[in-house]
Structures are given as C-alpha cells and as structure tokens.
Amino acid sequence: MMHCSRFNSSVPSAVAGQEIQNDSSTAKFSDVVEKLFQVIPDADLHMDTGHERHGSCAVVGNSGNLKGSYYGALIDSSDVVIRMNKAPTSGYEEDVGTRTTYHVMYPESAIDLDKATRFLLIPFKTLDLQWLPGAMTTGSNITLSYLPLRQKIKANKDLVLVLNPVFMKYVHETWLDYQGKYPSTGFMALILSLHICDKVNVYGFGKDKAGNWHHYWETLVDKNLQTGIHDGNYEYNVTMRLSEIHKLQLFKGFSL
Ligand code: C5P
User: What are the TM regions of this chain, as residue ranges (predicted)?
Assistant: First the structure.
C-alpha cells in the first residue's frame, strides 16, 4: 500500500498532477519524482506482505488529552511508535513516551529528527516533493509556501519515506466519504498503520470541550481553531467505530 519506490508510473495523472493544497509549482511531476529519488532510497517498502510489516504500532496524535495520561511507558512498549508534525517528547515523556520509529510530517510542519527516526513525508502538493531533496542535503531553495518553510532539516536521508499521493485519495474516498477538505495527518497515519501493523494502538486523538484540536505541549491561542479544514468529528467517529470492532484500540486520555 505504501511505496517509497518511484510512484510516478503507478499514480494516475489525475492524482499526481492535482494538488490538494494550492501549488505554485510549474514543474513536471515525473521530473520532480526523479530528482527526489536521487536523494532518498528508491526501493519497495511496506508492501502488505513484505518483511517490513510491523507487529504492534502506537499511533500518537497530538491531542491535549495526553496531558496527565501517563501513557508514556505503554506507548514505548509498542514495537513501532508513530508521531507526527511538531510533536515533542522532551519534557513530556511520562505522558507520551520517548521512542519514535516514524515521524510523519510535511514541509510546513517539519522538525529536526534524530538519526534513527524514519521521516515519513505526506505530500500535499508537488512543491513538497521539490522541497525535500534540498532540505535533506545542502538546503532547499524553496523557502515559502502558504507558510515559511525550513530551508534545511536534520533527518537521516537514508530513512526517508514518501507516502504515495494515491493513499490520501484512497483515505478520503474510502474511509471518510469525502468529508472534510482532505484527511488530517493523524487520520492518514492511523489508516496507514492498519495496513502495515498487526496491532494498532491509538493515543492522542480528540478535541477539547470547546471543539478545538488543541496540543499537549501548548496553550491554545486560536480559540476558534475547531478542527481546521478537516472533519474532526467524522474522523473521530470512524476511529471509535474501528475501536468498537477491535480493528484498533483507542486510548482516550483525559478530556479537557
Ligand atoms: O495538530 P496536528 O495536525 O499536528 O496533530 C496531529 C494529528 O493529531 C491531527 O492531524 C489529528 O488527526 C490529531 N489530533 C486530534 N486531536 C487533537 C489534536 C490533534 O485528534 N486535539
């Protein structure tokens, strides 16, 4: 389901060329992909039956319901720990754990990773794929999208994976019935885990009492954040349903 191999030939042009976010890139998609795989590994990984299939996975969203949860040890006891976006562990170990196997990010949410962590890029637009090779090496000349971008990030370029853009279309269509503008990072990570892990434990998902997707490490500034362009309620309901039928285990934390 997930490839880090050259996906240009297997991605229908309707998906490959059509960005989910506004894209100022005029580059040809296949050229961008060609350049990308000159920097990061170009091999099939995570085919469903492949040797890379994982045992238990902890998918850790960024919800404030992790605060005071003491889930840290439990999260760390999974074979694989998946975190996302700006999630810190330092200072929050008791609640969120310390290990990270995969860190799921996109250019606007990228942080530095340690060299044993796998950077899983979710591409939302062609520019994201253009940004990556430079950001992993000498510095990207793409420094602005709808937000300023890091010119360089620290991460092991031999452990970079790029999610096939088709996967987002599949999740939006098959799991969300096209609700929300597109799936959230967390929901993508969760569905991906169902495909590559034998057991999926889910932490750090859920809005606060006011309906906002708050973070465990910060005080909410934008009180009207809600769940942004994503259909947080629909995603959460699907997650709860999956939990009820034992496809995953949802750890609800403390609601705030
Ligand atoms: O806010 P951010 O996108 O970095 O959070 C990562 C993911 O965690 C979100 O995409 C969402 O799926 C989930 N989340 C959540 N409830 C929150 C905050 C985040 O379900 N309060």
Answer: none
54-60 and 80-84 as β-strands: parallel, antiparallel, unpaired?
A: parallel
Task: Kindly report the CATH number assigned to the domain that includes residue 246.
Answer: 3.90.1480.20
183-200 pLDDT per residue, tens? 999 999 999 999 999 999
- Please report where in the chains the tokens 């990556």 appear, as a residue: 132
Please write the tens of the pLDDT for every residue from 137-187. Answer: 999 999 999 999 999 999 999 999 999 999 999 999 999 999 999 999 999
Report the atom number in ligand 1 closest to the C-alpha of 85: 4
Ligand 1 is surrounded, with C-beta below 6 A, by 61-64, 84-86, 184-187, 205-207, 213-215
In a domain, 69, yes or no: yes
Structure-token match 């060329």, residue found:
17
Quote the CA–CA distance of 131 and 114 in Å, as a whole number.
Answer: 20
Domain that holds residue 79: 28-40+56-251
Residue type, 193: S
Q: Does the annotation mark 172 as catalytic? A: no
Contacts of 217 (CB under 8 A, 6+ apart): 62, 87, 88, 91, 92
Nearest one of 161, 145, 195 to 19, comparing CA atoms: 145
CA angle, residues 188, 192, 139, in degrees to nearest 5:
70
Q: Which of 54, 103, 230, 234 is catalytic?
A: 230
d(CA 199, CA 236): 19
Structural domain count of the chain: 1
